[in-house]
Write a structure and sequence with these properties.
- The structure is a single chain.
- The protein is built from 13 helices and eleven strands.
- It has about 400 residues and is an alpha+beta fold.
- It folds into two domains: about 180 residues, no CATH class; about 180 residues, no CATH class.
- It has a six-stranded mixed barrel with strand order 3-4-8-5-7-6.
- Helix 3 crosses helix 9.
- The radius of gyration is 30 Å and the shape is elongated.
Length: about 400
């Protein structure tokens, strides 16, 4: 029996099973690869949701964030009394608190160039993300914006994000650039002109974004920016831990004026980033769709592998019965099926990973959706593939219990 065991370990029975019918194996690999490709793409789009959720927050300067208790998401933050922001400014751990304003606003396309035959008609209306800050207290850590602050002193001037989609009417029909500087347009029912551009990213709630001064924001939104604010960005004294400062600030405000905490929430920037990402992934249809897509792709892949292995076991019952008659145990035979499932997973994973990488690049180039292959996703899908195939292999093992020596006669 020891000799038989040694010979068994040297014989790649699982691999030989797959190679014995190359056409069927190729069809199986293509089927499983398609399931893994679906998983890759669903994870890629889900990752894009998480990334775009924090494009703006990732460039805002602040250790803590003050936001309304009715906050919904970045482009619908609601507003709170600016007096609470001034009160927080008095805490000894706080260096400064800067206001930030943001909302969705109606944008009317600038005149359409004659060569842009596929561009939307002149005067088309769209929704754009309108952001604003005090020119003397910039909040963006973006060098392009810092270099153009003087342009924003004119309340009827704006900077447009180059990530804004072509349907917003850029002069070259593709992307806003220098040729658009000076172009007139209507923003919030007020005549405006493009004074410059920058690169940031638009997020999920809108396909375009612009930046104005707080005065320009007030003229278009009807909000008195001297009294109301969307977000307060708190910068702490050097060396202060944000979490410690948050707890100290909450305790300090409760003693000084409890009404503040009834209207304003205080989060560290890390907490705000996590909250925004979780909100888009777990509480919005787009995030849940891609999450469910991953689950359904796993189920589809597991079903494909199970049908392949179960059919193979049924076709090879006489061979398995012969091995059992020679003295091989259920565990030894089950190991063949499990190894065969792992080989299928590995052979299917490689083409799926390559095609997914190409599709990520194509998607990012054509749609500007930030899909990118990451090492976490490469390893994660590989582990999913092995887990998926292992489950299917274990289920297919039950067919082996029918492989009794008596079935030979």
């Amino acid at each position: 029996m020891q000799t038989l065991g040694s010979h068994w370990r040297r014989t790649p029975v699982a691999l030989l099973n797959l190679l014995s019918q190359p056409a069927r194996t190729l069809a199986c690999v293509l089927g499983v690869s398609f399931a893994l490709l679906l998983i890759f793409m669903q994870l890629g789009f889900r990752g894009a949701v998480a990334n775009t959720a924090n494009i703006v927050y990732g460039k805002l300067q602040g250790d803590l964030v003050l936001r309304s208790c009715d906050y919904v998401h970045l482009y619908e933050p609601r507003m709170f009394d600016r007096g609470w922001m001034r009160m927080v400014q008095g805490h000894p751990m706080v260096q400064r608190v800067d206001p930030f304003f943001i909302m969705l606003m109606r944008w009317q396309n600038p005149p359409r160039p004659s060569e842009c035959t596929k561009a939307p008609p002149d005067g088309s209306f769209r929704t754009v993300g309108m952001m604003a800050m005090e020119v003397d207290h910039p909040v963006f850590d973006v060098s392009e914006i810092q270099d153009q602050l003087d342009k924003l002193k004119n309340p009827d001037a704006l900077l447009v994000d180059r990530a804004t989609r072509p349907e917003y009417g850029p002069g070259n029909c593709k992307q806003f650039s220098d040729i658009d500087i000076g172009s007139p347009l209507e923003l919030g029912n007020r005549l405006t002109h493009i004074a410059g551009h920058f690169q940031l990213g638009t997020g999920l709630a809108t396909n375009g974004a612009v930046l104005l001064s707080d005065v320009g924001y007030s003229l278009r939104s009807g909000v008195d920016t001297r009294q109301r604010v969307s977000l307060g960005l708190v910068r702490l004294q050097p060396g202060i831990d944000p979490q410690q400062a948050k707890l100290s600030l909450i305790e300090w405000l409760e003693k000084r004026d409890p009404r503040c905490l009834q209207e304003v929430q205080i989060l560290t920037m890390r907490e705000q980033l996590d909250w925004e990402r979780a909100r888009w992934l777990r509480e919005t249809p787009i995030g849940m769709i891609f999450t469910m897509g991953v689950v359904l792709s796993l189920i589809i892949g597991a079903a494909i592998v199970y049908m392949i292995l179960a059919n193979d076991v049924s076709n090879r019952l006489p061979e398995y019965a012969t091995l059992k008659a020679m003295g091989y145990s259920h565990v030894s035979l089950a190991r063949i099926v499990l190894m065969q499932s792992w080989l299928l997973g590995l052979l299917s994973y490689l083409p799926a990973a390559v095609v997914s990488y190409l599709l990520y690049e194509l998607t990012a180039g054509l749609s500007k959706i930030p899909t990118a292959m990451t090492w976490e996703r490469i390893v994660g899908v590989l582990l999913m593939a092995f887990a998926m195939c292992s489950v299917s292999g274990i289920m297919a093992m039950f067919r082996l219990w029918r492989a009794e020596p008596a079935s030979l006669f």
